């Protein structure tokens, strides 16, 4: 006489049977009506319970086996010395979907003895794949499950393999800076991480459907969306406690330029600048001249009329609000001191102690990005401006030739020599008014051409002239990319000058620190760094630093 066991014991011994019933109930619920699903699910558990008496002397033998790399269901042996097998029919098989699964057997010595056979009904229209979770079953894609007398191995539809994304072109280079200023040591790690992630993500996007301008917009927006930078979200506040952003973009191949200034409520002003540049490049309609710069409330309306979204975003962060209050307090004290209204010893003592320590993360000046390929050249800049600026103030990011410039230049060469053309682009950070009056970005690009492509020489000359022109503290940080283009002499593949067509990335700054980074399609990971102005042997800080690298 065989021992009877409970339903829970049966489920543990015949795990495959319980798993099959679970799949069937789940697919029945998704394919049948609520009433029919309730009735059928009530029929399934009694069907399992019908296999109620087993002699569990060899339950460990009911294992999953692997044949030809395909997972198969465990074998269940009946009381009369037979075993059941499970197979699947593909949707293209001549058997219909509504066939009822049944139990058949073949003679073999058994260890698990089942008192009688049970037929588990498969709801009409349901399809089951034991290797796919029930929530992902689909009646048109999953194979049909049934119990068959055939001793064939399970067959499955061939999976659709998505090809891996194509790698980025080795000729593309992306460069970015996070602003020139004084970065506190505890801000270095998060800022470098932001630059690294932004460069890697934008390079990956460049291998997809994004065009060259779309790629550099993606890179710039990544920095605007982070409160770590003084652009977009978390920007410095005006004197009235509001956010007004400026941004500019230039196409170095076509010479097109577009910018937006004093824009409120738009988290990615670089997108507006791109639209201005593209419309300016196409020209006006009906004889009207397309603008290259739109500002203030008119810029918001201009963007909304063209379907631009997010014109009422709240870009003020708690950190920016706290910084604004501290700066406003310093300003009020300085104004009182200038009017001579604070001469008491207590007030004098407060001023001698100086301002409180800086906030945990201090945004610095304008951010910028560069993109260079053999056929495209772009430069961008975006900023929230200086803290406590008067409303309506426009920074250098929105001025032509001040913070960004990009163009194809031909360096002078001796007669009879074919000197290659060069793509040169730069994006500049610093004190906006000083950059506007000196046209620093355009002057630098022109100087590289004048100096026969010698970027270091051109950078040193421009920074020296910038420091000598004017009084007081003068701040600038510049990132530059130069690509030599193939000349007619390089048409011959064996030309010795062909191997010298390199891309160079340079940066220089007069501020204490400057966050920079770049990546190319041939690099394994982006390069990022916090550049610092060194000190001489006597410990005195040098006036500026110039550094550069050849890009692989």
Mind explaining what this structure looks like?
Helix content is about 30%, strand content about 20%. It is globular and about 65 Å long. Residues about 1-5, about 15-120, about 125-155, about 160-165, about 350-355, about 355-365 and about 490-500 have low confidence and may be disordered. The chain folds into two domains: about 5-145, no CATH class; about 175-485 and about 495-550, Glutamine Phosphoribosylpyrophosphate, subunit 1, domain 1 (4-Layer Sandwich), CATH 3.60.20. A hairpin with a 5-residue loop joins strand 11 and strand 12 (about 255-265). The chain has helices at about 5-15, 15-30, 35-50, 185-205, 210-225, 270-280, 295-305, 320-340, 345-355, 430-440, 440-450, 455-470; strands spanning about 55, 65, 70, 75, 80-85, 85-90, 105, 110-115, 145, 175-180, 245-250, 255-265, 295, 365-370, 375-385, 405-410, 420-430, 475-485, 505-510, 515-520, 525-530, 545-550. An eight-stranded mixed β-sheet has the order 13-12-11-15-14-10-20-21. It is of the alpha+beta class. The chain is built from twelve helices and 22 strands. The protein starts with 6 loop residues before the first helix and ends with a strand.
């Amino acid at each position: 006489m065989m021992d009877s066991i409970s339903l829970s014991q049966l489920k543990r011994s015949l795990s495959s049977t319980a798993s099959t019933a679970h799949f069937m109930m789940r697919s029945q619920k998704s394919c049948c009506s609520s009433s029919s699903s309730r009735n059928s699910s009530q029929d399934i558990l009694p069907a399992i319970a019908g296999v109620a008496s087993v002699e569990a002397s060899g339950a460990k033998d009911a294992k999953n086996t692997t044949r030809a790399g395909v997972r198969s269901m465990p074998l269940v042996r009946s009381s009369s010395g037979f075993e059941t097998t499970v197979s699947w029919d593909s949707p293209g098989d001549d058997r219909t979907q509504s066939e009822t699964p049944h139990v058949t057997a073949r003679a073999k010595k058994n260890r698990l003895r089942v008192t009688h056979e049970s037929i588990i009904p498969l709801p009409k229209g349901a399809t089951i794949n034991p290797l796919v979770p029930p929530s992902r079953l689909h009646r048109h894609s999953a194979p049909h499950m049934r119990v068959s007398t055939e001793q064939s191995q399970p067959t499955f539809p061939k999976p659709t393999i998505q090809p891996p994304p194509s790698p980025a072109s080795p000729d593309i280079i992306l460069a970015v800076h996070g602003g020139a200023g004084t970065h506190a040591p505890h801000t270095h790690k998060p800022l470098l991480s932001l630059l690294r992630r932004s460069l890697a993500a934008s390079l990956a996007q460049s291998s997809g459907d994004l065009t060259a301008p779309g790629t550099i917009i993606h890179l710039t927006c990544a920095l605007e969306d982070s409160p770590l930078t003084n652009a977009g979200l978390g920007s410095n506040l005006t004197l009235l406690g509001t956010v007004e952003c400026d941004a500019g973009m230039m196409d170095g191949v076509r010479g097109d330029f577009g910018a937006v200034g004093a824009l409120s409520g738009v988290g990615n002003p670089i997108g507006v600048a791109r639209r201005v540049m593209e419309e300016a490049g196409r020209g006006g309609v009906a004889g009207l001249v397309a603008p290259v710069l739109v500002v203030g409330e008119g810029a918001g309306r201009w963007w909304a009329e063209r379907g631009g979204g997010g014109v009422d975003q709240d870009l003020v962060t708690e950190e920016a609000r706290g910084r604004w209050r501290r700066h406003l307090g310093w300003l009020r004290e300085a104004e009182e001191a200038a009017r001579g209204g604070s001469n008491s010893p207590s007030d004098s003592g407060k001023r001698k102690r100086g301002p409180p320590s800086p906030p945990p993360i201090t945004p610095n000046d304008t951010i910028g990005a560069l993109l260079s390929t053999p056929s495209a050249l772009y430069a961008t800049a975006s900023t929230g401006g200086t803290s406590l600026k008067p409303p309506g103030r426009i920074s250098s990011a929105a001025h032509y030739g001040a913070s960004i410039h990009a163009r194809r230049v031909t360096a002078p060469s001796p007669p009879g020599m074919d000197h290659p053309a060069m793509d040169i682009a730069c994006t500049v950070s610093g004190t906006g008014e000083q950059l506007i009056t000196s046209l620093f970005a355009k002057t630098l690009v022109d100087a590289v051409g004048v100096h026969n492509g010698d970027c270091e020489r051109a950078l040193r000359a421009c920074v020296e002239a910038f420091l000598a022109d004017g009084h007081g503290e003068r701040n600038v940080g510049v990132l530059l990319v130069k690509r030599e283009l193939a000349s007619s002499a390089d048409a011959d593949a064996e030309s010795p000058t062909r191997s010298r067509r390199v891309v160079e990335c340079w940066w220089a700054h007069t501020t204490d620190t400057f966050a920079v980074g770049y990546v190319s399609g041939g690099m394994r990971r982006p390069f990022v760094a916090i550049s610092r102005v060194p000190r001489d042997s006597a410990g005195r800080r040098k006036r500026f630093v110039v550094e550069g690298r050849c890009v692989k």
